[in-house]
Structure formats: C-alpha cells, structure tokens
Amino acid sequence: MDYAAVRRKMVENQIRTNRVNDPLVVEALADLPREVFLPEPLRGIAYVDEDIPVGGGRVLMEPLAGALILQAAEITPSDVVLEVGCGVGYNAALAARLASTVFALESDPLLAARARETLAALDVLTVSVVEGPLPIGHPAQAPYDVIIFGGAVPEVPEAILAQLAEGGRLVAVVADASGRGKGTIFLKTNGVISRRVAFDAAVPLLSEFIPAPTFRF
Known about the structure:
The chain is of the alpha/beta class. The chain is about 25% helix and about 30% strand. Helix 1 packs antiparallel against helix 2.
C-alpha cells in the first residue's frame, strides 16, 4: 500500500474539508506516518475516518477529531503540553511538531511501551511518555501551557484543571456515555477557568473517567 498517497487523501478529504485550516496542524498530519503507530494487521485501516481499537479499551482517535483538538489548542513553539491518555502516542507525536515539550500520560503499561518504541523509531525526542493514573494528571511537571485528552471525558477533573498554567488552554471532548460530545476549550485567565464549546465530536470515553454505577434500593 502507498501509505503516503493514502495519507494525502486523508488530509484532503477528511481534514481540509472539515474546518481544519491551521497550516501547521495540516502539515503535521500530512507528514506523520499514522500507520506505524498500529500493529501490522491494522495498518491497512490507519487512515479510515473511524476510531481504531488498540487494546486496553483504548482507540486511536479518528483523524478529524484529533485534528480539531490540536487546532483548538492553538499550540505554539514554546508551549509545554500534557496529553492525558496518550494510547499509542500518535496525537502526542503530532503535538510535538507544534510544541516545545510534550508529556504523554498513559496508565496502561503495554500501550506506554508501544508508544515509547514507536516515538523512538521516528526519532521524536521531545515527547516523554509517563505512566500513572489518568484522573490525577501529571502534577510533577505542571503547570502546562496546553492540556489535551486522548479520549472523551464526562467532565474534566479539578485536579487536572489545577495543572493548567496562567493563560493556558485545555481542550477536551466532554461527552455522555454514548460518546456524543462537545469539543470544549477551557481557558485560565487571572486564575479563573472559563469554558466554551468549539466543535462537535463523537469520541469514546476514557474508561478511567467513567463514574462508577450507583445502586438504588
């Protein structure tokens, strides 16, 4: 398969036609080989406009949703970025094309190891994959100029919002149990968090953020 040709088609048909017009985001998507983040049997579907299961209850997010998140984050070359739930590391690698440093938080050791291996093979040197529970973020390297999520959440925990730098942006798909959600931008200004909806997205919930069921008697 000519992956470069399929990647160009993905950018033209899925990305440019759907309000993604940041030239740096488009360039990163056009250049980064998405297929190498997947095991060999799945590489043929790397560029479909669907979420791809990668194990551990996680998915490689469809290209458009990831692109919209990155565009909304308005990442600059001096930014330090945290991705919560990096999975196989693809979106972290995209963010690395835009930022100074990326910390990619993953709770699944197998996915974290796969992400490290792929990023090393691609010589992506500005991403550090760190392991830990997702809902508490990665306070050791806080504050962050930008925080993004590798899946949807019912709500963003206060513990993670607290890791946002002054003037920082957090972009998350806030969704219900069905995955129907809103791409939401959280801004920190003078210590106060504001939020606004930027786009619609259907992204699977990160399992660690799903509230435990309650029982009524």
